Amino acid sequence: MTTNRWRLDISYHGRDFSGWAAQPNRRTVQGVLQDWIPRVLRLTDPVELVVAGRTDAGVHARGQVAHLDLPVEVDTDSLQHRLSRVLPPDLVVRRVSPAPPGFDARFAAIWRRYVYRFDDSGTPDPLLTDHVLSMRDRLDVDAMNAAGELLLGLHDFAAFCKRREGATTIRTLLELSAVREGPRVAYTVRADAFCHSMVRSLMGALTSVGSGRRDLDWLRGVLATPHRESSVPVLPAHGLCLEEVGYPTDDLLAARATEARSRRELS
Predict the structure, then answer these.
(1) Active-site residue among 9, 16, 45, 56?
(2) 229 with 222: CB under 8 angstroms?
(3) Quick one: 7 exposed, middle or buried, by C-beta within 10 A (0-12, 13-18, 19+)?
(4) pLDDT truncated to tens, each residue of the chain (267 aa)?
(5) DSSP secondary structure letter of residue 25
C-alpha cells in the first residue's frame, strides 16, 4: 500500500490525560487522536501516530509534533478543521501538513524544549495552579543557573532517570536556564532527547540547589551516580510543558533519523 506521511502539530492540557502513549482503559492523547482520526477520515483500518516526545501523565504540551502515514487515496483536505470540531477542548491539532521526505517526528528531531514554571511568591495565582508549581522556598535564580551549567553537555543521566530495560540514559543537555518573571520563575530545559522522568528529576535537583537545601558538590555527586539517585526529588507534572521540538533542514532529515537510532555512548 502506498502512503503519504503527514505532520501534526499538537497542543494539549495534560491534567486529564494519562500521558501521551495509548494505554488500555486510560484516557491518553495518542488514544484520543487515534480514535478520532479514522472516524473523521472514514477509514476502516486503525492509524498509528509516532510522536516526538512521549509526555508523562499530567504534563502539558504547546508544541508537540507527531506523524502518521495514510493511504495516498485518503482525502486529507481540511483534516485539521474536521478534528477541531470533534476533539475535546483540552486537545488541539493546530496544523496538519505534508511531511517532507525523510521526516520522522521522533528520530529526525534534534532537540526538545521544555519549560517548568514555579511561583515562589508565597501568594500564588489560583488561576494558574494547573500550570505553575507553588514553592515554599524562595528560589535563587543565579544558583539554579550555576547548577545548570554543571549538567550541560553529554553525560550519563542515570541518576535522574527511571531506567528502562535496554534503553540508554546518555543524553546531551543543550540548554538549562532560569529566568525570573515577576513572582514566577521559568526554567528552560533543552536536550537532544530525554529519558523517563528526566526533566522533572532535573528540576527537583536544581530547585534543591536554588532553595539552598543542597549545594553544587551534592549535584556533582549526583551526576556521577550510575543509578537512580533517591535524594533527587521528582517534581509534579503540572508545572512542565513541552514548548517546542526542533528539526534540521529538510535535506538533513533522513541523516538525522539514522543518527538518532544509533545507541549513544560517552566518548
Answers:
(1) 56
(2) yes
(3) middle
(4) 799 999 999 999 999 999 999 999 999 999 999 999 999 999 999 999 999 999 999 999 999 999 999 999 888 888 999 999 999 999 999 999 999 999 999 999 999 999 999 999 999 999 999 999 999 999 999 999 999 999 999 999 999 998 877 788 999 999 999 999 999 999 999 999 999 899 999 999 999 999 999 999 999 999 999 999 999 999 999 999 999 999 999 999 999 999 988 767 776
(5) T
Rounded Cα gap, residues 55 and 133, in angstroms: 18
Residues constituting the chain = 267
Q: What is the dihedral of CA 134, 137, 141, 146, to 10 degrees?
A: -120
Tell me how far apart the alpha carbons of residues 207 and 204 are, in angstroms, rounded to a whole number. Answer: 5
**For residue 179, what are the β-bridge partners?**
186
Grid cell at residue 229: 539517585
| CA–CA distance, 71 with 74 (Å, rounded to integer) | 6
Q: Which residues contact 89 (CB under 8 A, 6 or more apart)?
A: none
Grid coordinates belonging to 172: 546531551
Q: What's at 259, amino acid-wise?
A: E
| Nearest C-alpha neighbor of 121 from the set 176, 179, 181 | 181
Q: How far is CA 188 from the centre of its chain?
A: 12
Rounded distance, CA 68 to CA 81, Å? Answer: 17
Residue 15 grid coordinates: 491534567
Question: Residue 118: which of 94, 98, 101, 140 has the closest Cα?
Answer: 140
Question: What is the 8-class DSSP label of residue 56?
Answer: P
Residue with cell 535535506: 251
Instruction: Tell me whether residue 56 is one of the annotated catalytic residues.
Output: yes
